[in-house]
């Protein structure tokens, strides 16, 4: 009797779907690739052919140049060689992110990529899919990680602005997904002032706007007079928080939007005055509740705290294993 899921092979550089001769999220250029989303630890340039959502292909084009891309809409099913069908459904991680549902010989495997269950005004929400094998991330796969309400964290940012009218709030946020989410969350809570951007996040903010995400008035922070920046939000990549670029700002309150801000030592190491616990990954409760909802026969765990989630599965008689995929970064999330 064939082993469940033996038609796909996890390798350090990606997941190989044998009968279709195609890779999912390969970390090295491949002849044929299915890509879950645009973050660099999942989407690499140089593939001969790529199937992804239109938004992910646009992100890859912006980051890597023209792609040999084939757009796949949410809910669309591809008929691949070897009798494999692939369907893309929302993952709720960033704009265009998808879970890839693979069906073959009566078995269903879901490669979830990265995902979250919190509402996000910049992307489609996660859709649970019943399956035989669920391949899940475990970035925050420890019980200590329980993300607070998004609105509470945004309120902290807005309160800091009101209390410090002669300073700016400099928010470190990953350039793809997190920066745009912070901006949109501010807009949804009534913050209509111009938001200033570091050049490294401008390009992807412009792309989000082109793809239909309204981010309000955005201005470049570089060369803006200090007086214009007082009482304003400035969004920059995390690496810019303490470099020479930030010294031009008016006494910035250094903030960082990341799930890792739950760990106080991380905030201290980065000299973060205002930690904002805002993640684009599922926390411990969301990971475990998702597994209960989907009810897979097996769970394969990758890029994160694999051991804790595997142990949780085993105590509930769910067969589980850790995958040794390489190249995954925490996206400062």
UniProtKB/TrEMBL annotation:
<protein>
    <submittedName>
        <fullName>Ligase-associated DNA damage response exonuclease</fullName>
        <ecNumber>3.1.-.-</ecNumber>
    </submittedName>
</protein>
<dbReference type="InterPro" id="IPR036866">
    <property type="entry name" value="RibonucZ/Hydroxyglut_hydro"/>
</dbReference>
<keyword id="KW-0269">Exonuclease</keyword>
<dbReference type="GO" id="GO:0004521">
    <property type="term" value="F:RNA endonuclease activity"/>
</dbReference>
<dbReference type="InterPro" id="IPR050698">
    <property type="entry name" value="MBL"/>
</dbReference>
<keyword id="KW-0540">Nuclease</keyword>
<dbReference type="GO" id="GO:0004527">
    <property type="term" value="F:exonuclease activity"/>
</dbReference>
<dbReference type="GO" id="GO:0016874">
    <property type="term" value="F:ligase activity"/>
</dbReference>
<keyword id="KW-0378">Hydrolase</keyword>
<keyword id="KW-0436">Ligase</keyword>
């Amino acid at each position: 009797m064939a082993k469940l899921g033996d038609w796909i092979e996890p390798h350090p550089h990606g997941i190989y779907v044998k009968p279709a001769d195609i890779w999912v999220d390969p970390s090295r250029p491949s002849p044929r690739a299915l890509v879950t989303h645009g973050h660099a630890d999942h989407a690499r340039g140089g593939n001969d052919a790529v199937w992804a959502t239109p938004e992910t292909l646009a992100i890859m084009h912006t980051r890597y140049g023209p792609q040999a891309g084939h757009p796949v809409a949410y809910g669309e099913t591809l008929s691949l060689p070897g009798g494999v069908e692939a369907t893309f459904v929302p993952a709720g991680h960033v704009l265009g992110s998808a879970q890839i549902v693979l069906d073959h010989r009566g078995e269903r495997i879901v490669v979830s990529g990265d995902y979250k269950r919190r509402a996000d005004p910049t992307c489609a929400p996660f859709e649970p899919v019943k399956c035989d094998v669920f391949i899940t991330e475990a970035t925050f796969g420890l019980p200590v990680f329980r993300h607070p309400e998004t609105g509470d964290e945004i309120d902290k940012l807005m309160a800091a602005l009101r209390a410090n009218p002669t300073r700016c709030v400099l928010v470190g946020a990953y350039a793809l997904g997190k920066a745009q989410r912070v901006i949109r969350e501010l807009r949804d809570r009534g913050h209509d002032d111009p938001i200033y951007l570091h050049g490294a996040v401008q390009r992807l903010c412009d792309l989000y706007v082109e793809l239909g995400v309204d981010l309000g008035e955005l201005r470049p922070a570089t060369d803006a007079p200090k007086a214009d920046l007082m009482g304003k939000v400035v969004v920059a990549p995390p690496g810019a928080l303490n470099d020479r670029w930030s010294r031009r700002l008016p006494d910035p309150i250094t903030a960082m939007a990341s799930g890792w801000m739950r760990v106080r030592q991380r905030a201290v190491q980065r000299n973060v005055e205002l930690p904002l616990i805002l993640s684009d990954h599922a926390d411990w409760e969301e990971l475990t509740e998702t597994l209960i909802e989907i009810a897979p026969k097996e769970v394969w765990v990758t890029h994160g705290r694999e051991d804790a989630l595997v142990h949780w599965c085993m105590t509930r008689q769910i067969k589980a294993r850790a995958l040794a995929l390489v190249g995954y970064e925490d996206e400062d999330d």
